Structures are given as structure tokens and as C-alpha cells.
Amino acid sequence: MFAAPALAASGPGAPGAGDDYFPGYGNGGYDVSHYDLALRYQPSDDHLQGTATIVATATQDLTAFNLDFALTAKSVRVNGIPASFSQDGLELTVTPPTTLREGEPATFVVEYAGKPSTVDVGGISPWVRTADGALAIGQPEISSWWFPGNDHPRDKATYDVRVTVPDGTEALSNGQRTGRSSLAGWTTWYWRNAEPTATYLQFLALGQYEVRAGKGAFGQPFISAYSENLGELAGPARASVERTPEVLDFLAGEFGEYPFEAQGGVVPAEGLNFALENQTRPTYSHLFFQYGSNVSVVVHENAHQWFGDSVSVDRWRDIWLNEGFASYAEWMWSESRGTGTTQEIFDHYYGAHPPDDPFWQVLPGDPGPSNVFHPAVYDRGAMAVHALRNAVGDAAFREILRTWVGEHRDGNGTVEQFTDLAEKISGQDLDELFNAWLFTSGRPDVGARTGVPEGAGVRSGEVPAAVAEIDRTHRLLAEREG
User: Fold this and answer.
1) 208-305 CATH fold
2) 1-124+133-206 in CATH: which number?
3) Which of 4, 85, 183, 212 is least surrounded by CB atoms within 10 angstroms?
């Protein structure tokens, strides 16, 4: 559940969740359980009209509260009664007509409209208008440009999203498609995301797409969509994303039960230069497929369904728990396919970055807000995971991963909680290993206590076949920071 910052017994909720990397993100004083979003979008002028109904519970006696929102609110009701409100930047401050009592359920209804691509707050404008529609895809911020909410991974909720667009335009979102209807030249698409989801992992892709629906892994609904404008990249995109069920079968064998009710993927033809692990339906830039099929990125984004989506960061400084493990999943996939063992890939990256490389100055366990998506978070982060495996052995490593995702399912976790779990299961003191890999500048030394075997980096002059694809994938994944 969402843990609000400590506040007085009665008063306004905090305008932030207390995250030291992004202090203004999220809010205190309430916990959202469900978002119902009714949207109408016109691609020709990027006009979005919406009604958001937010089901929440006050976590204190609440005289006022904030919602994170960048568009213009037209009206706000709290428990059916009009409420006063004001907006400043990303903060929509609402004063309910009466104090909301701690523990009592409440409903907030916000009506709004605007052209999201024209809205810039503090130099940030993540909504992307395309030639045939739009993309609401981003990390760590995107939700505020299309619905009001509590925009921090600690406050997860379920979603119903219905999007009305002109006939012939597709509207894609998370979870299961529960219906589609048409009236007077407009089509409404209905989506339900039934598992707790962080706000930034809820997405929209609007435009001209070929939508495929069938059965995926574990007998679940599998929905994939490809822009009709992909041209020569359509083939390699399909050759990659359509392997998602196979990838999920593999990952479930490593991490445990798949935590969600649906699966798939979306590939737009423009407007995106990275991939994002949108819950149940990752979205991939067309650029990943410019050299042919790319299953590494499919593995990476679907590994996030466990590491990042089901178990989300408690603070953005915990990003290693997302990117280090998703990157290591690519190494595990490579080993299973005979294109390079995890140790061979470790040796490559350890040797590719000499001790004086600035790469080693970024700390995966606390990279800083400007380096959340630095390549070191991915590659040094994956090396840290492998070093742990070397130190504790395969059996304990597997138990650590499965216990972590099982105990924290639908919740959040910190790096400290993970390291404590690793020590508990392995029965080892791992402080030296984690400090060297996550919290100390410089390349970790060779040694059993750091998980770096003798000969690392010089074991072979040959580069594992998987590395080229992994490198291309990670360069693009880090582009979101730009």
C-alpha cells in the first residue's frame, strides 16, 4: 500500500511523495485504488477531452489534497459535490467541501480538456503527437499529461480506460480489451487493467495500427499492434514481438509465475526512441528493428513485468532493481540460446570498461536523478546481479529471485530490502559485494567477496554473439533520459 509521508492528524496532504530524486512527484494524504478514465481524442488537432473518476481512501483527516496534472481542469467534484481547486505547474490542489476522514473511501471526479503536446511544465513535455495520432508513453513522467492522479510508483491502482476516437483510428492501452463500439463516426475502445499498476506504466497509443489478438503464454490474451507505417521494419518488428509468449515462458521458468492477466506489445512508427515496459503491453521504438529482429529488447521489457511492474521501485533511487535485473535477463536468455554464457558476457563488459573509465563513477544503487537511465545502471547493474550469482551459487540465486518477486508482488521494494533478503537466503555477509558494485566508484576488484572471478575481462578475445544486440538495445533504452 502507499505509505504517505508523516503528516499532522488533520490538514492538507503533502504535495509530494517524499522521493528525494523527484520531490514533487506523487502526493500524500490518500491512497488510490482505481482510476476510471473516459477519454475522447481527435488526432487532427491533438485535442483530448476527459473525465477521470478516482476511487481513493484518505490516509489522514484531509482538508485539501493534490493531484499531479498538467492539463487544464474544468471542474472537480469530491464525493459528488463540487470542490474548489487551483493549478500551478503539475499540482492540482483540491479543497473538498468537507474534511475527508482518515480511512473513509472517497471519489474524485475531474473533467478536463487540452492539447497535451502543447503543454510544457518545467521543460518537460512527454506526450508525443504523431502523424496519425499520439503516444502517451514515458518514464518517470507521462500520466500527468493525460489523466490526474497520484504519480508515484508507491501508489498503484487498477484501471478502466475507454477512449473514443474517429472511426479507423486504433486506441491501445493496458490489460484486456473488454469491448469496442461505434456510433456516428466515432469508435470507443474499452480496456481493463485489473492488477495494481504504477501511473507511469499505464499508456496510450493512438493512430493507425494493425491489431492482432490471440492466445499467448499460459493461455492468456495476447494482443500486439504494429503501426501501418512501419514499412520494411514491419517484418523484423513482428519477428521479435510475436515471440513474446516464448519469452514469457522462459522468464516464468526463471522468476516464477507471470504476475499479470494479459500480454503483448506495440510498435509505433515514429515519436519514440526507446522502449518502455508498460504493464502487460510493452511498447518498442521502431528503431530497435532497423538491423533486423531484436529479441533482446523483448526479453528486457518483459523481464520488467516482474522487476519493475509487479515489484516496483519504492523510490526512484532503487532503479537498479528494475534495470539491472531486466538487463541480466537478456544475458540469461543468451545463455539459454547458446549465443554467449552469462559469464562470457560479464567478462566482456568487465573488460570493455577499464578501471579509469567514467562508466565506473555512476553508482547503480544510487545513480542520482540525472543518471537514472545511465548505461552503467543497465550494464554495471547486470554485472552486479551476476556477481551476486557467482558469490551465492545458482541454487541460492534462483531462490533469491523467486522469493523477491513472490514476497513483493503487486508492491514495491528497496535495494536495502533486496540485499537483506540475499544475505538471509544465502547465509552470507554480502556487504562487501554490494558496496563494491552498487555504492562505490571504480571497477570492483577481482575476488570471491566481490563475485569477480580470476581472468574476468581477459578470458577470451572473442565477443559473445549476443553482445552486439544487447549493446544496441541498451543504447536506445537509455535514450529516454534525453
Assistant:
1) Neutral Protease; domain 2 (1.10.390)
2) 2.60.40.1730
3) 183
